[in-house]
Amino acid sequence: VQLVESGGGTVKPGGSLRLSCQASGYRTSGSYCMGWFRQAPGGPREGVATVDERGELTYADAVQGRFSISRDDAKKTLELQMVNLKPEDTAIYYCAVATGVVCGLESHWYDYWGRGTQVTVS
Length: 122
Known about the structure:
Shape: globular
Largest sheet: 7 strands, mixed
Structural class: mainly beta
Number of strands: 11
Distance between the termini: 34 Å
Strand content: over 45%
């Protein structure tokens, strides 16, 4: 499985960005969870948002109401729409896939990771 993120950049506080993740190398059918994580310099990797195969969404409290996650299984893509960005949102954002039964914000459930895309809010 390969995951490639894009869409990062530098924006001013209050601005918006849309991140995309293109997946390849696995079958589109079957149950799996997809999620976005982020890691600020010197900090832990933290879950931002997840979406399971039924479309059930989970958001971290810090981004609830500002970020929106979506997936398109036909295109094998995962997106994260981010609005009203804050300086504390600055981090490298990673796309991840979990093939097990748990779909949560904890990174240890995830089997495949992209290389990340930088988001800077300043």
